[in-house]
Amino acid sequence: MPINVPKQLPARSILEKENIFIMDTERATTQDIRPLKILILNLMPEKERTETQLLRLLSNSPLQVYVDFIHTKSYQSKNVAESHLKQFYKTFEDVRSQRYDGMIITGAPIEHLAFEKVDYWQEITAIMEWAKDNVTSSLHICWGAQAALYYHYGINKDSRSHKLSGIFNHQLVEPTCKLVRGINDEFLAPHSRNTDIQISDIMKHPDLVPLDQSEKAGPFLIVSKDERHIMITGHIEYDATTLAEEYKRDLNKGLDIHMPTGYFPDNNPDNLPLNRWRSQAYLIFSNWLNYYVYQETPYTWD
């Protein structure tokens, strides 16, 4: 998939070096095709890294995609330059008059807070409510998934005694679901969170379907029956070294943190970790774009 991104976006040069198909606006406008419009609400602190991770995964299909990034107006991120936000980001007020084929809501390092205590919770709920009429399908990642389950379905999170961090095995329980077409019956997925969603709460809800199970990590993929919401409880977009960097960061803070499970070769944090979830990450994103966005969205919005 050619990703239509601004020439100056830092992620562009990284993706081009990886031979990812990048297209600028000038070339995109010469093609007689309507690109999918995807809105990304980026709540992660290291926004430039998350931009690269998500754009990489959105690249793996023949569809053309146009991406808008938005950030919260009610909270100012401390880990990104104001100039970067001004150049590449909009706010909800800037886009609320538009309609989008798909939306992604990322994770956020605020799991220890009750949802209503989050500084930008009212802004998040306004965006999720707006999306009901203005977005064909939304994909929610980690805290974004928990927020969607709470807001749309009344399912709350449970705190953990220790952070869940590592690579965990999952078994498909709904292998015929469109989202997991092409994925092995067992697959690996990265997790990094301090809270859980209980599988029993998902299974009891009449509007939700868990697609997998894991004894240690719980459900990873949850789909609403109307296909409007995809919830990913982990971080399938992470790079190979992201969990290692988080682990070392937490150690330097003096936190009581466990080494990521099943992550470092030979269980030695001095060894460089390998990306063992890349193929399923690409499949999940391309399946979402194809089956839940492209196949369902109208060619022209009324």
From TrEMBL:
One annotated GO biological process: L-methionine biosynthetic process from homoserine via O-succinyl-L-homoserine and cystathionine
The record's listing under InterPro entries reads: Class_I_gatase-like, HST_MetA, MetA_family
Which positions in this protein are listed as binding substrate? 163, 192, 249
> Under which pathway is this protein filed?
Amino-acid biosynthesis; L-methionine biosynthesis via de novo pathway; O-acetyl-L-homoserine from L-homoserine: step 1/1
Catalyses which reaction(s): L-homoserine + acetyl-CoA = O-acetyl-L-homoserine + CoA
Site Important for substrate specificity: list residues: 192
Annotated site (Important for acyl-CoA specificity) = 111
Q: What's the family? A: Belongs to the MetA family.
Q: What is this protein called?
A: Homoserine O-acetyltransferase
Question: Native species of this protein?
Answer: Paraliobacillus ryukyuensis
